[in-house]
Design a protein that fits this description.
The complex is a heterodimer of chains A (about 280) and B (about 300). Chain A is mainly α. Chain A folds into two domains: about 1-55; about 65-275, MetI-like fold, CATH 1.10.3720.10. Chain A has helices at about 1-35, 55-65, 70-100, 105-115, 120-135, 140-145, 155-165, 170-175, 180-190, 195-210, 215-220, 225-240, 240-275. With about 300 residues, chain B is an all-alpha fold. Chain B has a two-stranded antiparallel ribbon. In chain B, strand 1 (about 40) and strand 2 (about 50) form a beta hairpin. The chains are: A mainly alpha (about 280), B mainly alpha (about 300). At the A-B interface, helix 1, helix 3, helix 4, helix 5 and helix 11 of A face helix 1, helix 4, helix 5, helix 6 and helix 8 of B.
Chain lengths: ~280, ~300
């Protein structure tokens, strides 16, 4: 009797999870299905999930309507710039906050963490004016250069946490052997930190790839659009061609999907880790 | 000794110098400048002109400010608890020991949360399309005439709140990790004492994840007070400003109407609201947030 009740509970849990997983994937299935429909099938009632015959030419048409590859490349450039910036600068800052003892260090670290609280809207206008005065409007620089300046408080925090697991004895031993901090940083800390650097690369990739407000503020010429601006523009102009619009959306979604398939294990472990540490 | 201290101070500052420069140029200076701008009349082309509290008194009679503020609070009141129930609910379902296929379920639920808003919004627009959309098609099978969703003044905000639930994956993972961290011995001991499942949930599970719930409430409230991407992409704040958030309204004043001074003042008001809400959370946290080892 007891085991029967347990079986029912199990079945209910599985049933619920299947429904939930289905709901979470549903919009994307609908997107993909619509992207393969013929123009005439769009108005079918009731609409079908997948067309009887897939029309892959919607993808070719979508790419003809907007320079997908150019926007894709622009996004890649911005994202790559951010990745380099974060990887170069965040570990340096984390080292200064964890393995060098200086007066005021912990207070400064606290200040760094508390900057996360400040809404972007507060700093938005003066930051825009800075880039305007530098003549950097309508270039990728405002979207890339800030990444070189510390790489974000959360990233520094995660690397610092990781550094603190590397024993100080090891560093002291190197110091006795005559190594200076720069050598220790490069030869000991960086090689040991590959896991955490991989993790913050994943976060940086997602953050930069998905950034919408940054390009919206700084990029005005269409040929410099990243996908973040190209896709909404497509929707505005050709949104009524639903099959092509969904083909464009599928193309925009695809890099994230591929990234996810490769990185999901690290990503899922990493998010748990960062959530706990915070 | 003195010299050694100075040397390590310089060394430390050198290492953190990238952040320090960024902090001064892109945080400290902008905060000071935007505070000053908030008391000025300032468009991109003209120099800031000091007008005292002009921008702040303007807000009192600015209907759109009040509308966007109320909309933002509606977003927060809708999004924060709903996200909590859904993320925690899924995490609890996934926390069953006997469960197979956890990686699949987790991946399926997490994936939408990293899809960029600019791609997701196109999907949502079609999904909730009044005539061609999936949702209204299903509703029509039950003889229900679905609403206009994003094109309806009443339904625009709820639609955005519903759409945002596809992004709870990150919170779900954090709750999952918190649930996994609860020491098994506590449940074993409770079982021996004859505790029921619901007692164990109320007396063990829930208290031990209150720090995570607290973390979620604070970060989700701060984040959603600034909600921008989804409403901007889905409706641009419409129809008739029904989904206009404070974030969008600030953006529009700064870059569409180039009222940089007014935009800065609005941003400071937003900051004020965020600070007050955060302080309230912390003030009430002692009443319900439980830290293992503190008692």
């Amino acid at each position: 009797m007891q085991s029967n009740a347990q079986l029912i509970v199990k079945l209910v849990v599985y049933f619920l999870l299947c429904i939930i997983a289905f709901i979470y994937l549903l919009p994307f299935l609908w997107m993909f299905g619509t992207s393969l429909k013929a123009d005439t099938e769009l108005l079918d009632f009731p609409p079908k999930f997948f067309p009887s015959k897939p029309h892959f030419d919607n993808y070719a048409k979508a790419i003809n309507r907007f320079p997908f590859w150019k926007y894709f490349l622009n996004t890649v450039i911005i994202t790559a710039g951010n990745l380099v910036g974060v990887i170069v600068s965040a570990p340096l800052v984390a080292y200064g906050f964890s393995k060098v003892n200086w007066k005021g260090r912990d207070a400064m670290f606290f200040i760094m963490l508390s900057t996360v609280m400040i809404p972007g809207a507060v700093t938005m206008v003066p930051t825009f004016m800075i880039f305007k005065n530098l003549g950097w409007l309508d270039t990728f620089l405002p979207l890339i250069v800030p990444a070189f300046l510390g790489g974000g408080a959360m990233n520094v925090f995660l690397i610092k946490q990781f550094f603190s697991t590397i024993p100080n004895d090891m560093i002291e031993a190197a110091r006795i052997d005559g190594a200076n901090d720069w050598t220790i940083f490069r030869k000991i800390m960086l090689p040991l930190s590959k896991p955490v650097l991989a993790l913050i690369s994943l976060f940086t990739f997602i953050g930069s790839w998905n950034n919408y407000m940054g390009p919206l503020i700084y990029i005005t010429s269409e040929e410099k659009y990243p996908l973040a601006l190209g896709m909404p523009m497509f929707m505005n102009r050709y949104g009524t061609y639903w099959n092509q619009a969904m083909a464009a959306a599928t193309l925009t979604f695809l890099p994230t999907l591929i990234f996810f398939l490769f990185a999901q294990k690290y990503l899922i472990e990493g998010i748990k880790l960062s959530g706990m540490k915070s | 000794m003195q010299k050694k201290n100075l040397k390590s101070l310089i060394l430390g500052l050198l290492f953190i110098s990238p952040w320090l420069i960024g902090f001064i140029v892109f945080t400290v200076y902008p905060i000071v400048a935007s505070f000053y701008y908030s008391f000025t009349d300032f468009s991109i082309t003209t120099k800031p002109k000091f007008i005292g509290f002009g921008n702040f008194s303007r807000m009192f009679s600015d209907e759109l400010f009040w509308k966007s503020l109320i909309n933002t609070l509606v977003y927060v009141i809708g999004l924060v608890p709903l996200g909590l129930f859904i993320a925690l609910g899924i995490a609890l379902l996934l926390n069953k020991k006997y469960l197979r296929g956890i990686p699949f379920f987790r991946a399926a639920i997490y994936l939408p949360s990293i899809v960029p808003a600019f791609a997701f919004s196109a999907v949502v627009t079609l999904f909730f399309h009044p005539y061609l959309g999936f949702v209204n098609t299903i509703l029509s099978w039950f003889g229900i005439n679905g609403p206009l969703w994003l094109s309806s003044e009443v339904w625009a905000k709820p639609t955005i709140i519903i759409a945002a639930q596809w992004g709870v994956g990150g919170a779900m993972l954090i709750f999952s990790a918190a649930l996994k961290d609860i020491p098994k011995e506590l449940y074993e001991a409770a079982l021996i004492d004859g505790a029921t499942k619901s007692t164990m949930f109320r007396k063990i599970t829930l208290p031990l994840i209150t720090p995570t719930i607290f973390y979620y409430l604070v970060t989700s409230t701060i984040g959603n007070m600034q909600i921008f991407d989804l409403p901007m992409l889905l409706t641009g704040g419409g129809p008739a400003n029904a989904s206009l958030s404070l974030g969008i309204y600030i953006y529009k004043h700064a870059f569409t109407y180039t009222n940089m001074g007014y935009a800065s003042a609005l941003a400071w008001v937003l900051f004020g609201f965020i600070l007050v809400l955060t302080l309230l959370y912390f003030a009430f946290s002692k009443k319900w947030v439980f830290y293992l080892g503190n008692e």
